[in-house]
Amino acid sequence: MTETRWVSLAHPLEDGLPRARASWPCSFTPHDTPVTDGVVGRITEIAMTSHIGTHLDVPIHLFPNAQTLDDYPPERFLGTAVVFSLLADGPVEIGVEAVRAADPGLRPGEMALISFGYAEKFGTPEYGLHPYLSLEAARYFVERGASLVGFDVVTPDMPVALRPDGFGFPVHVELLGNDVLIVENLGPQLGSFARQRVEIIMTPLPIRGGDGSPVVPLVRSITSAQTQGARQ
């Protein structure tokens, strides 16, 4: 049966969200504030970076003078996506052969959403020791013409605790350097769409010159679950 219900793939925004080492803590502080005589309204003070929670990376995040959020038309953030099921446990590198075998039939211009089975670990110590892509696996998405690749982990690159000195973020560089956008920290509903093609809407905040933004990816299935295999 075709799923027609829209489902959010975003984690709720709240104090203490998991974050990258280069980021800083976020906070959401409600204030009861007089707005007019005799009326008190609640206004929440928000302090956060553009790269926390479920969020989008665009090329200027790593490449000076590259594309910013406002360089992209709205249609870049909607369309269709396929969901790769690449379940793994711990900080294991996922190679190109595993990605190719899990490909449900990614078409040029579509988004690819990758479920490592880690969204449920969000906020736990295990979340920081996650699976990640090899450079060759990242290159696969470039060669297949993906417009965006999303992940249910904090980064598609090697976990922070395992990185050698001078780590160069090879997956980020390969994807963003080829104008393949990145979404990190997808939520726990992602796994329920494994091996499916979905309709997706994922509008970022309109930050002028932005390097990234929180997003709320909304998806609904447009195919039954199936593995079609990668096109050669």
Overall shape: it is: globular
Query: Measured on Cα atoms, how large is the radius of gyration?
Result: 18 Å
* Separation of the first and last Cα atoms: 29 Å
Number of helices: 3
Mean pLDDT over the full residue set? 92
- Unreliable runs, pLDDT <50, ≥5 residues? 225-232
Helix content: under 10%
Summary?
The protein has three helices and 13 strands, in the order ββββββαββαβαββββ. With 232 residues, it is mainly beta. A nine-stranded mixed sheet has the order 1-13-11-5-7-9-10-4-12, covered by helices on one side. The protein has a two-stranded antiparallel ribbon with strand order 2-3. It has a two-stranded parallel ribbon with strand order 6-8.
Characteristics:
single chain; nine-stranded mixed β-sheet; disordered C terminus
Structural features, described:
It is a single chain. With 232 residues, the chain is mainly beta. It has helices spanning 96-102, 135-143, 170-176, and strands at residues 7-8, 27-36, 39-47, 55-57, 78-85, 93-94, 111-115, 132-133, 148-151, 181-184, 197-201, 212-214, 218-221. The two termini are 29 Å apart. Helix 1 crosses helix 2 (135-143) and helix 2 runs parallel beside helix 3. The protein has a nine-stranded mixed sheet with strand order 1-13-11-5-7-9-10-4-12, covered by helices on one side. The chain is globular. The chain has three helices and 13 strands, in the order E-E-E-E-E-E-H-E-E-H-E-H-E-E-E-E. The longest helix is centred in the middle third of the chain and has 9 residues, at 135-143.
